[in-house]
Structure formats: C-alpha cells, structure tokens
Amino acid sequence: MADSEFSLIERFFQSALSRPDVPLGVGDDGALLIPPAAQQLVTSVDMLLADVHFYADADPRGIGHKALAVNLSDMAAMGAEPAWATLGIALPAVDESWLAGFCEGFFALADAHGVQLVGGDTTRGPLTISVQIQGFVPPGQALRRDGAKPGDQLLVTGIPGEAAVALAGLQGRLALPSAHREHLLGRLERPTPRIAQGLALRGLASAAIDISDGLVQDLGHLLRRSGVGATLELAQLPRSDALAALDPALVWEAQLGGGDDYELLFCLPTEQLSTLQDLAHDWPCPVTCIGEINPAGPLQLRDPNGGLYTPKDIGFDHFVGP
Ligand code: ADP
Ligand code: MG
Predict the structure, then answer these.
(1) pTM greater than 0.85 (yes/no)
(2) The pLDDT value given to residue 320
(3) Of 188, 181, 195, whose CA–CA distance to 65 is shortest?
(4) Which of 186, 208, 211, 252 could form a disulfide with 143 if both were Cys (CB 3.0 to 4.6 A apart)?
(5) 99 lines ligand 1 (CB under 6 A)
(6) Which ligand approaches the C-alpha of residue 89 most closely?
(7) Is 210 exposed, middle or buried (0-12, 13-18, 19+ CB in 10 A)?
(8) 99-122 burial string, b = 16+ CB within 10 Å, else e?
(9) Residue 28 pairs with which residues in a beta bridge?
C-alpha cells in the first residue's frame, strides 16, 4: 500500500487508551511491554475470514466488536485479565468509513476491558482479520480444560443457542420471532466476552472452556483433556424468552450444536456451588447447572424423560463443515 495509506491506517489504529505497562505501542517496529513480575502471561490468537466467520457486508462496527470479543472470550475461559492486543488485517481496499466503523466497534470493547492495541500489520487482500491477545493470571490459577473431576457440576453462563438461532434466521432456515429478532442478532453479531465471570471463577472452577464451536463439541474437548465423561440434562438447558418462542426440538439442536455463543462452560466441585451462587448474584447473565461430570466414559445427553438423546449435529468443524 502507498505511504499515505499506511499513515492513514496507523492513525486509525492508534489506541486512545494508554496503559502504564506499554512504554511503546503502535508506531515503531515492535511494541515494548512490561509483563507483571508475579503473573503468568496468557496468549491467544483467532482468525476471522469474511464469509466464513462473518458476512463481509455486515456492519463494520459489529465486525470490529466480534474480532476482539472472540479473543477476549479465550482470556475469560483461561481466567485471565486481558491487557494487550495486536491486529493483523487484510483489506481489499482502504475504505475510510468501513475502517472508522470497524475501529469504533473494536475500541469500544477494548476500552471497556482496559485492553490496549499495541501493534499490528495491514496488507491488501481478501478481508481477513487476526487478533492476538495477551493477559495475565497468577501462577496456578488459570482455568484449564484438564481439571474436571467425577462428581463436579457442569455449568454454563448465558443462554447457549441464541447465536445459532440468529444465524439460521439470517440464512433463511427459520423465521426469527419479530419481537426477539434484534436481541438474537445481537447475540450473534456482538457476543459478550465473560471476562468478569472468568476472573471470578479463578480458584473455584476445576475446568473451563468457551463455547465457540458448539456446546457438545467444546464440552467434548474439555472431557477429553480431563479424561472424564459427563451427563448433560437437556431439561436444564437455560431458555430465554426468545428461545421459548421457537420449536423446542429445534432449540435443542441450536443449543447443542450451534457455535458462536462465546459463553463459558465450566466445572465446579459441588461444595463450591453456594459460593458461586453468591458471586453470580451480581452477574448480568444467568449461570445454570446443566449436568455432572462422570468417570471416564461417553458424554450422555439425557432428554426430559430420562432417555438418551442423539443430536443431529454436534458442532462446527472448519474442515468438515456444518
Ligand atoms: P513494519 O514495516 O515495521 O512492519 P508497519 O508499517 O507494518 O511496520 O507498521 C507501522 C506501525 O503501525 C507498527 O508499529 C505496527 O505495529 C502498526 N500497525 C500497522 N498496522 C496495524 C494495525 N492493523 N493495527 C495496529 N497497529 C498497526
Ligand atoms: Mg508490518
């Protein structure tokens, strides 16, 4: 890209926020960062491709929000306090109004979480966004996938399935109830990373993962890493008014197999349940017990009559498809 385009992009990507642990951010060959002495650094990266992870013609503010939100969700799932981000972006052309919208969505969420954008790279190409993020966690307190124990309760924040229902609506696979349309689309386009919940679960949860590819699929990752099984009670899956307005069988499929929720799925020793209930009192999202961890064995999904349920689709795999 031409020099003027470079300075334009550099100007767009200047963080208003200035953290004391960033002596040098955007503008040099590299950023200088001061990692906190007594904490571990948690790092994560996600890629978003136009028309795979988002529609290229979607509101750029939503794209900016989601590009950071999916990374913040990884920090939440680690119990990490997010701090720094870098942004790699390929753009088909320099479109100032698109960039302004993208940055508005990105920086509103970054500022809300005290995250400073400290660098990045910009090239011309098919619209692709990659955000890297770093955060901190005290040694031994990270929420890992491999700590679940038989007897632990299985819980979830928020309402899984709403994002998948919204996507099905956009794709014309179902009619979104008009009274809930905006709410559902908001869950898909502007997921809420559960940072405060991840921090609160430090020292309480035995294992955690965020739901990006579907509840059953992501639960499967956690169970495999922990070497355990689980029973999930479909009757306990939380439903919002928006989901209650839809066919219940279809809602189960969305809740079990749909991606893009960015809710936290976590395990908790039973004796910690009352502590969690006290904490969750102030949370803006529900937290619901949906099952229990078993000794090693298959994941069992139980329908409300106690029978075993087999979902049609168990989540998104980029190499297999929906
Ligand atoms: P270099 O040629 O050394 O890679 P660049 O010209 O690519 O440098 O970038 C100049 C400065 O602008 C660097 O500090 C880089 O981190 C920053 N930068 C470039 N693109 C972005 C972006 N998309 N987001 C944040 N910072 C960016
Ligand atoms: Mg560069």
Answers:
(1) yes
(2) 45
(3) 188
(4) 208
(5) no
(6) 1
(7) buried
(8) bebbbebbbebbeebebbbbbbeb
(9) 26
Is the model's pLDDT at 206 over the cut of 50?
yes
Distance between Cα 122 and ligand 1 center (Å): 7
29 C-beta closer than 6 A to ligand 1: yes
DSSP string, 197-248: HHHHTTTT-SEEEE-SS-HHHHHHHHHHHHT-EEEEEGGGS---HHHHTS-H
The rounded Å distance from CA 10 to ligand 1 centre is 6
Whether the CB of 11 sits within 6 Å of ligand 1: no
- Shortest-distance Cα residue to atom 27 of ligand 1: 120
Determine the distance separating the centroid of ligand 2 and the alpha carbon of 6, expressed in angstroms.
10
| Cα separation, 95 vs 91, whole angstroms | 9
**End-to-end Cα distance, the chain:** 36
The 8-class DSSP code of residue 125 comes to S
Residue 316's closest CA among 158, 167, 155? 167
Show the tokens assigned to 230: 């689980």
